[in-house]
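Quality-control log, excerpt.
Job 1 of 2 completed; input and output follow.
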Amino acid sequence: MRQIKEGMEVVGFDGVQIGVVDGIDGDRIKLKKSEDGHHRHKGHHRYISMNFVDSVDECEVRLCSDADIVQLFEEEKSGRPVKS
């Protein structure tokens, strides 16, 4: 968990980018807000449980599931799953 830093890319096991780390909030990765309109979560933070982390290198957090699966379990700050 200490290796995860702001600005690192978060990618699924399939190599698809899920987001960019904004910080750590408890046992979850807080992703930067999406402003580009291509994501269903435009304008607010998303959170991913540390349970999904497979590995961390210099600039990337790789998760143990494909991006589609991880996005089903994304949360808002409240800890509730994000509705599509």
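Job 2 of 2 completed; input and output follow.
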Amino acid sequence: MKDTFCVITFHSTHLALEFERVVKKEEIKAKSIPVPRQISSSCGIAGRFEEEKLEEIKDICRKYDIDFEQIYRVYQDKTKEPEELA
């Protein structure tokens, strides 16, 4: 089990659902999750993916004009605070 993963947050549920649709279409392993408690967001849905997919995820968001709020590195060890990546 990896000790970190990435979470991407969105300004609206619509954008979060569009992200989910697009990553599925592009065959990228990502899934929708509730926004972790350590992270605040104006939308309750976030995307979760592995950090090695970070640049690919950002490229896809640009390609499909999906405006994300923030991308974080989240630690499985909940005593560590998430780090902003983008």
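Post-run check on job 2. The chain is about 25% helix and 30% strand.
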